[in-house]
Amino acid sequence: MALNGSTTNQALLDAQLELWQNTFGYIKSMALKSALDLRIADAIHHHGGSGATLPQIVARIKIPSSKIPHLRRLMRVLAATGVFAAQHPPPATGSSGDDEDEPMLYMLTPVSRLLVGSQNLAPITTMNLHAAFISPFLELGSWFQHEEAPESCELFKHAHGQTCWGQADRDATFNALINDGMVSDSNFLMDIAINECGGAFQGITSLVDVGGGLGASAQAITKAFPGVKCSVLDLDHVVANAPAGDTGVQYIAGDMFEKIPPADAMFLKWILHDWDDEECIRILKNCRKAIPPREEGGKVIIIDMAIGVEPSDLRHKEMQAVFDIFVMVINGKERNEKEWKKIFFKAGFSDYKITPVLGVRSIIEVYP
């Protein structure tokens, strides 16, 4: 009986631990946000591969001395969650090696290495952790209880009184937050996409990056395939901030819901998951009008999630499920293959191919 009771108690405690992991998951997100705000990864990176002590980090991020004990606790969380690594330095010559007061060394991990350097993911991570995207989820339960028309069913608007894209149009700082985030993601992902599935871009001579922002994806394609003439289509306030100089890319102000310029291929990276099915069909129909027949090289190339396309580990499945809720904030949606197929065929396409080579994302080629 004692053994059974002990087993039951342990099961209860394990369940409580799992409950706490979910309850306090936001602490991990806010610890990461704090690390970004304070540029802790840059401070550690400044000291090279040997790592940095807490005093060295403090010297770079310049916080009040009264906050140093709290920073030590923040670093403990960041190390426990794998953002940084922490270890005692090797003992000095002649030292016994058991001095627990020896300052801890903090080092970058594969995760935090993504936050430093010229092409890092700090901007997209900062965007995802911005209060404008986080605060609506505090009202998620009440949002579910409100009856709303499908076209108005946007959590962001419920919280802020305007759509995400409306705020980007009116607020230059918020617009820059989104554009810089998308650039950082493209700088990270496009080289991988081209290496893993470069065949998707071969055989075409022109391409329009639909909703392509500041053109980072189009620039990567042009660099890898100099024979492809790339254009970027986006709204006026986005194109107004396009990089100056010779980028090898043409920028076109326009609305993908109205008309898309003609080219052999349309490219949509992380665009369709922002919209509901009917809006996606409108975009894809305009893409279909803008490309030649399949036998002349016409296609649409999409980078987005395709949930459950092939067996994946628990982390992939969980992130796809979590991301589906995240894009719900702007009335977006992550789709499985059946859902993708439905909107492709409704938009007038005849075939598609999904290549799941980008972690939780896939390259999807769609043919007229």
What's the quick description here?
The chain is an alpha/beta fold and 368 residues long.
Key words describing this protein structure:
single chain; 368 residues; alpha/beta; 3-stranded antiparallel sheet; 47% helix
Structural class: alpha/beta
Gap between N and C termini: 68 Å
Shape, per Cα inertia axes: globular
Number of strands: 12
Strand order of the largest sheet: 6-5-4-7-8-12-11
Unreliable spans: none
* Backbone CA Rg: 24 Å
Helix content: 40-55%
| Continuous helix count | 17
SSE topology string: HHHEHHEEHHHHHHHEHEHEEHEEHEHEE
Instruction: Give the amount of beta strand, in percent.
Output: 15-25%
Describe the structure.
With 368 residues, this protein is of the alpha/beta class. It has 17 helices and 12 strands. Strands 6-5-4-7-8-12-11 form a 7-stranded mixed beta sheet, with helices on both faces. A 3-stranded antiparallel beta sheet has the order 1-3-2. Strands 9-10 form a two-stranded parallel sheet. The radius of gyration is 24 Å and the shape is globular. The mean pLDDT is 92.
Give the SSE map:
Elements: H1 2-23, H2 25-38, H3 40-46, E1 52-53, H4 54-61, H5 68-80, E2 84-87, E3 105-108, H6 110-113, H7 122-128, H8 131-134, H9 140-144, H10 155-160, H11 164-170, H12 172-197, E4 206-210, H13 216-224, E5 229-234, H14 236-239, E6 249-253, E7 265-269, H15 277-290, E8 299-304, E9 306-307, H16 314-327, E10 335-336, H17 337-346, E11 351-358, E12 361-367
Parallel strand pairs: 4-5, 4-7, 5-6, 7-8, 9-10
Antiparallel strand pairs: 1-3, 2-3, 8-12, 11-12
